[in-house]
Amino acid sequence: MKISLPLALNEIGGRTNNEDNIFPQKGNATETQRFFVVCDGMGGHENGEVASSAVCESFAATLQSINPENFDKNIFEDALSSAYDALDKKDASTSLSAGASAGSKKMGTTLAFLHLNNRRALMAHIGDSRVYHIRKDKNGKTTILYKSSDHSFVNELVQSGIITEEEAAKHPKRNVITRVMQPNLEKRYSADIHITRNVAAGDRFFLCTDGVLESFSDAHLCHIISENTDDETIIKAIDKLCQNHSRDNFSAYLVSVIEDVEEEVITVIEEEEIIFKHEAIKTEAESLKPKKSYRYMLMILLAFLLLGFGAALLCWKHKPTEQQKEQIEKQNALFYPDHFEE
Question: What is the pTM of this model?
Fold first, then answer.
């Protein structure tokens, strides 16, 4: 598939320092870029920035040399494992340089990830940074085809039916996340992965941190996309809202598809070719079937008639006489004395 120039946000927002990181860095993405990473760091001044930066850099180092067409779930999981390794090393070096024991600082980061190739889109996330797959139809109606489900305390309450999404937006524990990438974990958290082949020209993928989500709802995001035709206007509208309403750092990537997934077209062509070949083989097989001859059928019918006539003649020839019938009845009476006539 082909994409337009990806557009990004990576802003300090209402904080004193920026703990968010993205890959590619803002302004560095091109139309040939095939994977995108958005991370929201946490752990206090500088620590969050270290964690989010380590994960972005690790994914970049691992995947830059991978052929996009060979990318799959296993490669992503290997890259995620390498990112955890990078966190472990970064935590050890940071802690020791500060004179503390390794692992004493509770730095960590969320992850939002997107990979595109000519076959499919793979989306993955850990924590409450989010990934959207959005489609706008010819009439301007915008639909969210996929939205990642936050690993957060309030989202678990929403999923359980305890609170509504509107209540979650104002909940005092809305910033508590239940899954995060951290160093030196006994059991590393896995990412939720979503893979789709349902990608069409005009689709948009939107990755963002929770600082963006503070500023608008899903309905508001769809409205912005519905009302605007170009990505630059859309990203500027999102930036303006976040500047006015977000108290956190806010980062995002907007990636638009301008050409359909190639394999989908190839698959349709192949299926049509298979149908045509099947019909051709079927027609050829029909032509090779032996044609039934009327003369052959007539000969079989005549043979059956002759056999029937011969059997009837034989039965008539051996028909017992009245004298023979009486003799047979006497013999039956001797052998079956209890026989009664009806």
Answer: 0.75
